[in-house]
Amino acid sequence: ARRAVTVLESHPNLDLNDLMQRVDRALSGSRGAVMALLRLDDRNRTAEFVGVGNIGVHVHSNLVIKPISKNGIVGYRLPQLLRLTYTYNSGDIFVLYSDGITSRFVTEPLPDLHQPPQQIAEEILTRFGKENDDATVVVVRCE
């Protein structure tokens, strides 16, 4: 993970596909990782996404935004990358989550989305986290 963070911190403005390829090279020879990159441009109201592995993304918006992660492992078997770009609105909420969150997360009513993002993430983890798996949830509210 440290090698991936070093690459991300060293090249924050690089194209997301190029950034993912650099992380792939940095993680070569390791167990690898699943990973998603989301870049929000608040000036142009665009979101760019590229994901590898079982990282889910659920977006609360009045626009159709459906990011898709490709099967693979960063550092071991990087797939052909698919960078997706979307327009977003103020107030939209992006929820990125690992496979430690049950699939019913996207079909059941969600917590009060007016809460701070940290509280939303904690409630998702509490309600939908699998007991026998590690889980990660990141919630981003666009202003």
TrEMBL record:
InterPro entries: PPM-type-like_dom_sf (IPR036457), PPM-type_phosphatase-like_dom (IPR001932), Ptase_RsbX (IPR039248). It comes from the Bacteria. Transmembrane segments: none annotated. Residues 12-142 form the PPM-type phosphatase domain. This is Stage II sporulation protein E. The lineage of its organism: Bacteria, Bacillati, Chloroflexota, Chloroflexia, Chloroflexales.
